[in-house]
Protein 1
Amino acid sequence: HVQLVQSGAEVKKPGASVKVSCKASGYTFTDYDINWVRQATGQGLEWMGWMNPKTGNTGYAQKFQGRVTMTRSTSTSTAYVELSSLRSEDTAVYYCARGRVSLVEDTYYYSMDVWGQGTTVTVSS
Amino acid sequence: EIVMTQSPATLSVSPGARATLSCRASQRISDNLAWYQQKPGQAPRLLIYGASTRAAGVPARFTGSGSGTEFTLTISSLQSEDFAVYYCQQYNNWPLLSSRMYTFGQGTKLEIK
């Protein structure tokens, strides 16, 4: 059974950092990207960036450049996202999502087909 | 940055009726578009990728269409479990390493009329 299991809820003070984990099981961890997406309460989905677990290559949304770091441990099939200099606006549910490449009629398409259960991060003084 | 605009923000439809949700890209993205469904308290669920290909296990009443800048998700004969929020997402420039950006639309809430 393919699944992504995330770490538990976090409460942080403004200016601190938070690191959320995402443990993959049921598939070969290095064969698929991991994306991170967040969602503030009552708001839409916001893509933060992607990571290739095989190479460690990453790409971050411009909004998070300089504040976000995505890493992984291939030995434990776990991806991590760390967000620094936290502010109240970073309060949200953070999701990891597997990036899948599908071939349809000679064309490759990308999608996020498996999602973690979400991790609530609260930033409050 | 490519901006995705969904309309309407809220759509009220009766069970058994058809729902049509729209998504517009600020620049051409070919068919590099996915649709997701999200229910309260749950993670999003992939419905459609490549603008029109249903993901595994997605009922045939979900149909995606469009290319370029205009996209549509149609749900025929709405079931009670279909009332949720729907998001479109573009993934243009894939797989170019340095310029991958996966922008979401702001969502359409499909509610019971």
Protein 2
Amino acid sequence: GENVEQHPSTLSVQEGDSAVIKCTYSDSASNYFPWYKQELGKRPQLIIDIRSNVGEKKDQRIAVTLNKTAKHFSLHITETQPEDSAVYFCAPGGFKTIFGAGTRLFVKA
Amino acid sequence: SQTIHQWPATLVQPVGSPLSLECTVEGTSNPNLYWYRQAAGRGLQLLFYSVGIGQISSEVPQNLSASRPQDRQFILSSKKLLLSDSGFYLCAWSVARGPYEQYFGPGTRLTVT
């Protein structure tokens, strides 16, 4: 089955710094690469996604980059703010997705 | 617009009791449906997914089962709960042929005592 790994498991940054989270996967048939954000006690919500025919996508302060050859994709958050503090999950796949274990991001004011 | 409902929001059940959690989706047809479980401070574990009425795929061989009696209804059940069944249960849906963004329900927090 699909093997999904996320790194790091915990990330602490100063407000204004950048944060990068990496996701590696094993299934070469994966064609959809989303990142979800989950705030404490709430449901996960999509923040950005990318499809296999695109190498990079940006939406204001967040971006996702994809390396299909190496089977990994990364979430980049620039100019971090305290409200970015949450758990972030990657979920590569297609209609069936396997979620990574999550990265807990702390942004210190 | 589409909405997803889950109930109950919280549930406290004794070990050995049965379980029934319900999820319904409005505003879309033939969605893919999913059940996940999240233990405290952990990731999302995919339990079941369904691509159509009566079509259920199981990802974990546990004492849980799922059913899809109607197009937009997904039910998670157990005949006898275990302590290890405690967690945050999330239902989600996605568009049948993509894009595959998943939309999550508000979740049910289950405590087995």
